[in-house]
Design goal:
Number of helices: 2
Number of strands: 4
Radius of gyration: 14 Å
Structural class: alpha+beta
Order of helices and strands: EEEHEH
Oligomer: single chain
Helix content: 25-40%
Length: about 80
């Protein structure tokens, strides 16, 4: 797979995805499976993984988390 930003080689890896919700809520989903560019560090998350991340963030928001780190593997 080639990076859409720089055309570098992308390898399977992991990334952290921060979400700022409103003005006072920050949730970071850690170690999300992704394709990561060796050249520029940009990442691409497949649609199934993105949907799981959306569910994780929604659950954390419903639970009232204001500032938190969620491990993808544990929450997915």
């Amino acid at each position: 797979m080639r990076c859409p930003s720089c055309r570098g080689i992308m390898n399977k890896g992991k990334t952290n995805m921060p979400f700022e919700i409103g003005r006072d809520r920050v949730i970071v989903v850690k170690d999300v499976p992704a394709w990561v560019c060796k050249q520029c560090g940009d990442f691409f998350v497949e649609i199934g993984v993105a949907r799981k991340v959306e569910g994780i963030v929604a659950a954390a928001t419903r639970d009232g988390v204001m500032l938190g780190f969620v491990e993808y593997k544990e929450a997915a």
